[in-house]
Amino acid sequence: MNKKGFIFDLDGVIVDTAKYHFLAWKELAKSIDIDFTHEQNEQLKGVSRVKSLEKILAWGNKTISETQFKALMLKKNEEYLSYIAKMDDKEILPDVPKILNYLIQKEQPISLGSASKNARPILEKVNLLSKFNAIVDGNDVSNAKPDPEVFLIAAKHLNIKLENCIVFEDSVAGVQAANTANMISIGIGKKEVLHEADYIFSDFTEIENSFIQELINR
Ligand code: G6P
Ligand code: MG
Fold first, then answer.
1. pTM score > 0.85 for this model?
2. Residue 33 appears among annotated catalytic residues
3. How does pLDDT run across 113-163, given as a tens digit for each residue?
4. Among candidate residues 155, 211, 146, the one with its CA nearest the CA of residue 183
5. Which of 48, 100, 118, 135 lies 20 to 30 angstroms, CA to CA, from 141?
């Protein structure tokens, strides 16, 4: 049987955690007198925790000590985890299980490819962990997207050639990472934002099983 490697980003693709990242960053920014907007939050999609805090400090024209930086990172994550603790399978984005189940039925290998260090607990909370053959997340990489490292490791775990991997991503950095890895990139979100992707859909309800089957047959 034809096998392709299907790699999914987590935040914004499988679950909408951007709203929780926003609340946690907003609270943190407020505590150091920095204003934080929804537009800025958009720019943090796919961006690692360290890089996100660096950006927020730059927007607010603030410099802090390394000790304070570490403390703020911890504080943000504690706040974020308090939202995650309340998550359940209702927070899975529409038709994600439909696509995952189709891939499983067709015996296609599936990996997560996320920048988040909280990926495993989130997948557990929404009851999807068992659908994945491999989990590659922020704990496994040293280079953040748009560096392709996370997807290269995922392909290796799945034992699938790079050009036979398909990546689902909602962030520009993620789409760029997939393209650099020579994988097929599928943008989930707005066309104006994700125009570098090979295919773009606003969400998984727009993706038919026949489209997935074509990818498998390629
Ligand atoms: C994803 C999100 C980012 C987040 C990053 C790290 O890429 O889109 O907004 O900053 O993961 O997440 P973490 O859970 O490790 O803080
Ligand atoms: Mg994402």
1. yes
2. no
3. 999 999 999 999 999 999 999 999 999 999 999 999 999 999 999 999 999
4. 155
5. 100
